[in-house]
Amino acid sequence: MKKIFIALIVAAASLMFVGCESRLDIPRKGVIDLSSFYQTDADAESALVAAYYTTGRFLSNTMWTTAGWNDCPFLSMWEYASDEIYVAGSDKTDGQPGNEIQAFRMDYNNSLLAGTYECYYMIIKAANDVIDNFADAADTQVKKRCVAEARVLRAQAQLLLALAWGTAPIVESNLAGDAKPENASSQEAVLQWIADECDKAIPDLTSKTSVDDKKGAVKVTKEFAYALKGKALISKHDYAGAKTALKQVIDSKLYKLVPGEEMASLNHNSGRASTEAVFELNFQFFDGMNAYGRTQPNWRWLWSWRSDHMNSPTGEGSELVVGGWGWVNPSQKFVNKILEYDGMDSYRRKAWIKSYDEVLYDMPYASDKDGLTPAQKKADKTRGVMDSGLYGHVGYFMWKRLFRQEDRVMADGNVANWNLTLMRYAEVLLLYAECCAQTNDDGSGLAALKLVNERAGSKTPVTKCDMETVKSEKFLEGWLDGTRFQDLIRWGDAAKELADNGKYYPTFYDAMSKKGEAEHRGYIDESDADWCSKLYTVGFKTGKNELMPFPFNEMQLNPNLVQNPGY
Amino acid sequence: MVGHMGPATLFNQNIINSMTKQLFAKAATIVMIIAASLLGTSSALAQNPAIRGTVVDSGNQPVIGAAVMVPGTTNGATTDLDGKFEIRVAPGTTLEISCIGYVAKRVSAANGMNVVLEDDAEMLEETVVIGYGVQKKSDLTGSVASVREDDLQNRSTSDAAAALQGKAAGVQVIQASGAPGKAAEIRVRGYSSNSGNIGPLLIVDGLKVDNIQYLDPEMIESMEVLKDAASAAIYGAEAGNGVVLITTKSGKKGEGKIFYNGQFTLSSLSRNLDIMNAADYIAFEKACGYLSDQALNDAHYDGLDVNWSKEIFTPTWSNRHTVGFSGGNDRGNLYVSLNNVHNNGIVRGDKDVYDRLTFQVNADYKIKDWLTVGVNNSIERWSTKSVSEANDNGSFMLSAITSSPLFPVSGDRALLEKYYANMIDYENKGYTLITDPDSGLYWLPPRIGSTQSGHPFVQRDASNSQSSGFSIRGVAYVNFMPFKGFVFTSRFGYRISQSNSHNYSAPYYSSNTVKSDNYSISASANNGWYYQWENFINYNRTFGKHDVGAMAGMSYIENNWDNVSASASGTDILKGYAENFRYLDYLLSDGVTKNMNNAPGRSASLSYFGRLTYSYDNRYSIQAIFRADAFDSSKLPLDKKWGYFPSVSAGWTISNEPFFKNNVDRSLVSFLKLRASWGVNGNINVLNNYPYSTSIMANAVYYQYDPDSPTLSMGSIPSGLANPDLKWETSVQLDFGLDARLFNNRLTVGIDYFNKDTKDLLVGVSPVKEVGLPAFGDLGVATNVTMNAGSVNNRGVELELGWRDQIGDFSYAINANASWLKNMVTYVEPTVGQITGRVPQGCEMGTYFEQGHSIWYLLGYEAVGFDNEGNALYRTADGGTTTSPSQSDRVDLGSGIPNFTYGLTINLNWKNFDLTIFGNGIAGSKIFPTSWRPDRKECNTYSYYWANSWDNPAVGAANAKFPAADKWSTQAFSSTLTLFDGSYFKIKQIQLGYTLPKQLTQKAKINNLRIFAALDNYITFTNYIGLDPETATNGGSAAGIDMGNYPTAKSVILGVNLEF
Q1: Distance CA A222, CA A242 (A)
Q2: Per residue in B664-694, pLDDT tens?
Q3: With a threshold of 0.80, does the pTM exceed it?
Q4: Is the pLDDT confidence value at A290 over 70?
Q5: DSSP characters for B480-502?
Q6: What is the mean pLDDT of chain B?
Q7: Chain B positions in Cβ-Cβ contact with residue A53 (cut-off 8 Å)
Q8: What gap in Å lies between CA B968 and CA B883, rounded to an integer?
Q9: CA distance B603 to B528
Q10: How far is CA B730 from CA A493, A520, B194, B256, in A?
């Protein structure tokens, strides 16, 4: 019996040391070991795709950042800091971070600025994932091209940082978690660095194969790199350098402005990768698209009409999608300029904005099925602005970047099937014309201006290439392209043109709904238009507002970062 | 010096003896008078001669207050101060002598009799489960709280964790929701981490379990909580938040029993929902300029005053049944029970229901004298439906608080067509208008005003979801006992679980903000299997005065899961929408966005552990524990996987010292022990998903290079920025304790002081933005770097007091416990600064984790009065006051975590009646009820605010506690003005039972038949304005923020206990 016990004890003891330890090694699913990645051409392509994805995502939206879900870093901040639009919304309490920027009363706590800053560096990180891993070991043409494309994507983000923050740090390779980077030495130095980066990339980049090559419009090409270089150099007033770079794009003969009749398709699904696109980020809805990675999320609500304050045109064939917050409305200044310069009948006016009469009488309403006469339409209560009125509105409706039925792919409307255009041939032509106007035009500047002006069907033909003409054309053509603030700073006109920012937020009413009149009659109510200037010191302040403040959180975390003057 | 003046002076036997005797005499007299008056003492008994006798203990000391009874009658007496009694019975009659702390004895009556009662060894030798073994309670050197069967019997809760509430000092049970099927959370000795996973390790019969909700309190024999690090160290890396050990019932030797316990419960809202009625709401909205008579007219307001609380909550019946069999003999025991719970919550309708069926089989058999085998198995089937709660955006409960009282809850078609044109409009577009399933009436949104989360019943009825599951949990074990004192145990534990959920919702319209444009459907199937294999040896021997114990063992644990889920949504997704089409099988094949998920997973751990105990002469005990744990590579790198957790503890039983024995009367102090312990525990819950490594997430993102086709080119991204130096969170804890039994074991006292430092908390540190960690929250990329960068200190005092006594046939017991807790974040990496917990929408007050403050303290404005216009004034950072403070003026306003918790249980037994009163409470916590948003001023809210507003004519500016209606602001609702004392005391249960006389029941072969009635949660003492201060005090990072939590109901319970 004793032996049994002893045997049992031995068994017991052995049980206690069974080799289970190997069962503790559980490989992670759905991932590749870091050390085995970033090796092959395919890896380089894969990393580059991630850079495009990141660029597309974080130039389109601030989702998951400090700024919240609503804004588009490529456009919003730049548009808010301009005289092109009113940052509006439901009423004066709406959209405060945007209003702070527009009225130049923002400080380092502005969440939209912080989110935008964050977005640009995330793009740089993704590009550095390519450059860090392949630049020194670019033993194939594929790797060289991938590095070159990533270099230009990075330069694009650094350009936006430089234009907004001046000396925002240049991040040339990925930083460690505890890094505390320093400011760049000067804005000029960053701009020159961007131009140099484009030069480094250009030899390894490809070009569009023809004017109609669409694939070449949605990736980084030699020509986009030249355009970007030109933009960087003109921003540091190196007109000769910029002109040379921009001329490369024009001389490539790979780009053509779309006909005036098609202007309204720019920035929309039907204008995807047009002959005019130098570089746009391509996004098409596909079955199973990750809702978070959706291309143009909430900012489509901001950039739509305030449709709950309207009986909107929702009849058969309407382009309008109901549901919008109405944050971006044309400013009186812009409306005046385009009516006076281009005229009501120009292609450009029709493609960019709509009058209240056009909205009321030319767009389809449900009641049209009853075959209303013009007089009946005038008295039709199922159309028009409701008694709540449209805040920050002067009776002209943004059309250029309005979310339309053609852009819509899902009923809830959050996914938009449109591209984000980073560089349009029209901008190249206008930047080129500006270089010519600033130096000595040999006629090519005027030719460039004419291309833009004539395509627009403007009633004011251009006759000479001077800065005044360039400024007029740029204001109108580049409206809602996010360049206005950059232009005014570069031209030295910001103090003058932006002095009144934040002083005027009128409300647009219809006398039918507001006053009970029998017919539609839109009118502007200015009674509370100055609410913002009554509460705050508003308007552009020279010596301060040329640059944005570095976000508070960055200043807290990084003792090496020096704040911009005045903040 | 000490010895000289010592015990003799301190414990003067005579003085104390006479004091206690007087005390007992008084109490006994009072009780006897009451008893006599109730019974109407029979004069017939006076005919028998008086028998006089004395009752003494084994030390020949008189036993005071012992009951001397003629069994089966009401004839009895009680011993006096000298242990003497007198009873009129015929000589030779059998008398039963009983007294608390002694073994009852039956003797034959004789005049001048001297009865010697023996100490109740069982009580003194009570054992507690300590992990891989048991220990005599008197030998414990660590701090272990023990809750017994008696305290768990006939409780109205069906949740084992909830049954612990108020029963043990230092153990806080948080009932964050009163909804059916919502498990209570347990916190042992405070809040140790910024992580949400700070519940204790749960072990049932040796099996590690992920929850104890499946366990009905009726099935539990005892629950032990290992509170100090030294005790918990036997579970090492997982024990940092304490360990709860549960032992389920087993069969007992003797004749088999068949039992049935039943409860029928009528539950209803326990406190009034005090929101504004129509008159107040109109007055308030007018005062703030939102409403006018014109607007009311335009909206055709007809004077209606909806009491939402009455609409939403309704009394409901629930029931619970347990049927079981138990028995045993010298070789084996068997316990089988079947428990069924049907719990329907107090929300109107059947959308909050919990059903559970549990089958428990525990059996063991001694095959040979040296071999025992056994199994414990629990088979559970559950299903649950619930309404949304505790959310500041889209919660059923919050919408109940914020809905306007002016308009009907529901209406017929005519009303709809009259006033709700937009609803008709949407109906024509194909949207469903949600109706009351009972009456068919339409749920109507307010015509003016708003609610914060839509119509409560639209919230309830907009979707149909249900989850249910099936689980088997159990252990099978073999014990070898080859020689004396030696037991080798090999134990295999397993859990097999399967659960399913289904959800379907159709497009509906209620208002412009509360609608859905899409159909959505989803289903998931979750499968898990878990096993643990543990082998350990216990060796316990006594050599003279030396007691030696040793334990050594190993454990391997593996958990596997394989979950599949699928969902689809869109404007048109199914081949049909009738009820029998609402399954994924009937999805349209084209044009429907589908999501599918599956990735099987596994985790594993390996541990070695050991324990040595030594005690000398029942006076000095010392215990040392060591455990080494290794976890799989998803937590820490394989070369750093081992963690080592040591502990030591010691006890000194002073009462067994000769000097004490010789000087202190043991009927005064029978037991006195001092304990001290030190130990290290870990917390593994916070390390998951390979936080130490960066990998490449393959093909996680895409770009489309062709504008004419949505073809994707896939891209791979790094998974984050890794910290290869990660280690697990550890706690070091010191504990000092004192245990004593006094007055013939009537009074038990336990006092503990602990100091627990948790360090190396895992904190997500955000690098500077220039580092560019992508905000790919949706892709699972870490947006910060996980670092060991924080420390928390918890210290406190715990007190347990128990008093039990018996006077004649009246016995009673009072148990009280209390704990004081101080909690402090002692370190947070400076670059992290403040970690945000929860800031409700539209508020500037929220919870934060920051050095120098209590964990998740509330940061908000300090209001100091009002200006002449009714604006609130707030303290600024520089000491001034302002009406428009900035965020930097916010200060620490306290925390939702109480610093004092207590419980009280009173048990009274008299003849066949028993009465239990149980209550618990907390103090020192704050609650911030969120019911107002600056952008939803037209919502209803708690009456308190308007009733105390500066401009309410009924209040007057001088007595105002709240700003003028049109000055209500985000800051006001983020300040001390909206912060309330969360202290409460609840009488959780009053239970009165009656056991039918045995003579009667035995005729029907019934051994025991008890009926009872109970009132649960009927009385709450609190100053809180919301529905339930208890559920508002939840245990996570939103502690103290009441975003509309499901209140605990009050209940009337009728029950029966039957045993054959």
Answers
A1: 15
A2: 887 789 899 999 999 999 887 778 788 888 8
A3: no
A4: no
A5: E--STTEEEEEEEEEEEEEEEEE
A6: 86
A7: 701-703, 715
A8: 11
A9: 11
A10: 61, 73, 13, 48
Q: Which residues in chain B have their CB less than 8 angstroms from residue A283's CB? A: 704
- Tell if the CB–CB gap between A177 and B705 is shorter than 8 Å: no
Which of B840, B798, B837, B848 minimizes the C-alpha distance to B818? B798
DSSP structure class, residue A362: I
Selection from A410, A259, A378, A549 nearest residue B573 by Cα: A410
CA distance A342 to chain B (A): 32
Residues on chain B touching A553 (C-beta within 8 angstroms): 769
In angstroms, the CA B246 to CA B213 distance is: 12
pLDDT beyond 50 at B121: yes
Contact B164, B223 (CB under 8 A): yes
Position A7 scores a pLDDT of 59
CA-CA-CA-CA dihedral for A215, A195, A226, A276, to nearest 10 = 70
pLDDT band at B181 (very low <50, low <70, confident <90, very high): confident
Pick from B153, B281, B54: nearest CA to B905: B153
Q: What is the pLDDT of residues B27-65, one digit of tens each?
A: 444 444 444 444 444 444 446 778 888 888 877 777 877
**Dist. CA B690–CA B700, nearest whole Å:** 17
ipTM, two decimals: 0.93
Any idea which residue has 């929702």 for tokens?
Answer: A314
pLDDT at residue B31, as a whole number: 46
| pLDDT for position B899 | 92
By DSSP bridging, strand B546-570 and strand B762-765 are: unpaired
Residue of B nearest to A4 (CA): B482
A37 near B CB under 8 A = yes
What does each C-alpha distance from B92 to B70, B88, B110, B111 come to in angstroms?
A: 11, 12, 6, 10
Contact B778 A293 (CB under 8 A): yes
Whether residue A260 has pLDDT greater than 80: yes
Alpha helices in B268-324 (DSSP H): 278-287, 293-298, 308-312
The pLDDT, as a whole number, for residue B37 is 42
pLDDT of residue A10: 61
pLDDT tens per residue, range B941-988 = 999 999 999 999 888 888 999 999 888 888 999 999 999 999 999 999
Retrieve residue B407's tokens. 């308009």
Cβ B241 vs Cβ B192: under 8 Å? yes
pLDDT confidence of residue B805? 86
Return all residues near B219 (Cβ < 8 A) that are at least 6 apart: B248, B249, B322, B337, B339, B358, B360, B378
Higher pLDDT, B10 or B326: B326
**What's B232's DSSP letter?**
H
Burial class (CB in 10 A: 0-12, 13-18, 19+), B43: exposed
Q: Distance (Å, rounded) from C-alpha B496 to C-alpha B490?
A: 20
Closest CA to B145 of B66, B207, B227, B90: B227
SS3 B700: strand
| No. of helices (H) and no. of strands (E), chain B | 17, 57
Taking residue B442's Cβ as centre, other Cβ atoms within 10 Å add up to 23
Whole-number pLDDT of residue A17: 57
DSSP one-letter string for B368-429: ETTEEEEEEEEEEEEEEE----S-SSS-HHHHHHHS-SSS-SEE-HHHHHHH-HHHHHHHHT
Instruction: Please tell me the number of Cα atoms within 13 Å of B811 on its side-chain side.
Output: 15
Does residue B775 belong to the interface with chain A, where contact is any CB pair within 8 Å?
A: yes
- Give the span between the Cα atoms of B432 and B446, in whole angstroms: 18
Is residue B598 over pLDDT 70?
yes
Residue pair B472/B496 in contact by the 8 Å Cβ criterion:
yes
A136 alpha carbon, distance to own chain's centre: 32
Residue A71: is its pLDDT beyond 90? no
